[in-house]
Structure formats: structure tokens, C-alpha cells
Amino acid sequence: MDLFAIGYFAIVCGFLAISAPKLENGFRRLLFGLTLGVIATTALPFLRAYWGV
């Protein structure tokens, strides 16, 4: 894995760590994490092409 992908997913995980405790129960946290992971994984190739990395 290259540095761009590591940095990108570090930012996504940081956002998840900040946001998840505000959700009431474990199911909502899991659903939020899964949704965010799918969005992040789908967006990465487009962001790489946009930024030319």
C-alpha cells in the first residue's frame, strides 16, 4: 500500500473515531462504519485520478 492510500484511510478512520461515539448503540456505529468504508473505498480511485497520484 502506498502513502497516499495510507493517509487517505487514516483521515477516514479519524473521522470515524470522532463521529462514532456520538451514535447511541453498537448497531448504528457498525452501520456508520460500514457505510463510510464503502464510500471511502469507492471514492479512492476517483480521488487518485483527480489529484493525479
The helix count comes to 2
Work out the helicity level. over 70%
Distance between the termini: 13 Å
Strand content: under 5%
Shape: elongated
Major pleated sheet:
none
Oligomer category: single chain
Give the topology string: H per helix, E per strand: HH
Q: How many β-strands, per DSSP?
A: 0
> Mind telling me the C-alpha Rg?
13 Å
* Unreliable parts: none
| Structural class category | mainly alpha
What value does the average pLDDT take?
83
Overall tally of structural domains: 1
Secondary structure blueprint with pairings:
Blueprint (H helix, E strand, L loop, with lengths): L2 H17 L6 H26 L2
Give an overview of the whole structure.
There is one protein chain. By secondary structure, this protein is mostly helical. It has one domain. The protein has two helices and no strands. Helix 1 (3-19) runs antiparallel to helix 2. It is elongated, with a radius of gyration of 13 Å. The two termini are 13 Å apart.
In short:
With 53 residues, the protein is mainly α. It has helices spanning 3-19, 26-51. α1 (3-19) runs antiparallel to α2.
Task: Summarize this structure as a short list of keywords or feature phrases.
single chain; 53 residues; 2 helices; mainly alpha
